[in-house]
Amino acid sequence: MKYGALTGTCAGLTRFAGALALTSACGSGEGSVPQRPEPTFVPSNPKPSDDRGFAIGSFVHTFYWMEFEDDYPGRADTELAGSDCRAVAMVPEAFAERVCVEGSGRLSSGALLNLTGECACGYPCPETGASVCFFPVADTRASWGYGSDGNPLIPLRSLAIEQSVVPHGTVLYIPEWDGVKIPASPHGLGGFTHDGCFRADDIGYGVEGRHYDFYAGTSALWMTLEQMRPTDSSTTLYRDPPRCAGKVL
Questions:
Q1: Taking all residues of the chain, what is their mean pLDDT, rounded to a whole number?
Q2: Which phi and psi (to 5°) does residue 177 adopt?
Q3: pLDDT tens-digit profile of 137-170?
Q4: What is the DSSP letter of 219?
């Protein structure tokens, strides 16, 4: 998810391990979020009419991803600090400017950093205006960063969505993504035909109402997906789909 106002590209805010923690979520610009709906309702002892699950309605989508230091040549002259004010990395300024917005980044050394929250000694993010700190991710199960409940994010499966609209951990089916061929991409992503199954793994400031952020994993894959289903396209969401049982782990 992204942190800050929904301006130009992305904005998001999440809570991790009980502390205010920031991750990335890509927004789409001004005026892209429709009116906020009431929380979704599922009756007691529900039984969906078919294997798609319960229809929630139409949503617009945006994308978010991880940043990679290797994509930003230049001198490592900018410090990223932890919440204890000790340096966790020295990186090129251009990388710092993006990772503080996207929320997670892979260093050239292979180490992964995630935002932990605002702190007085943090990096002053130009786009958001926040002073933010980072922490190194040691858990190999979270090689693509953390969601809003300390859960690992899964590229091409995880969505950021307002929890009052869709509770965290809810499995979702989106027919417009079913059958879409995801091309093979660097970092081992893609190379399969999507089945339309996702999970609500994250939240984001600016991600409100009938709006979800699709975690693309990389900016390159986001640009590919953008050609297939452009930002702000309308899709239909179904929750608790029997057809997705066991497909989103």
A1: 83
A2: -95, -10
A3: 999 999 999 888 889 999 999 999 999 999 999 9
A4: H
148 neighbors 161 (Cβ within 8 angstroms): no
Buried-exposed string 179-205: b where 16+ CB fall within 10 A, e elsewhere: ebebeebeeebbeeebbbbbbbbbbbb
Domain boundaries, the chain: 36-62+154-244
Q: What pTM, to 2 d.p., does this model score? A: 0.80
Angle at 203 between CA 215 and CA 169, to 5 degrees: 80
Question: 134: part of which helix (H) or strand (E)?
Answer: strand 131-137
Model confidence pLDDT, tens digit, residues 11-45: 333 333 333 333 444 433 334 444 445 555 444 44
Burial 143-165 (b: 16+ CB within 10 A, else e): bbbbbbeebbbbbbbbbbbbeeb
Does domain 36-62+154-244 fall into CATH 1.10.150? no
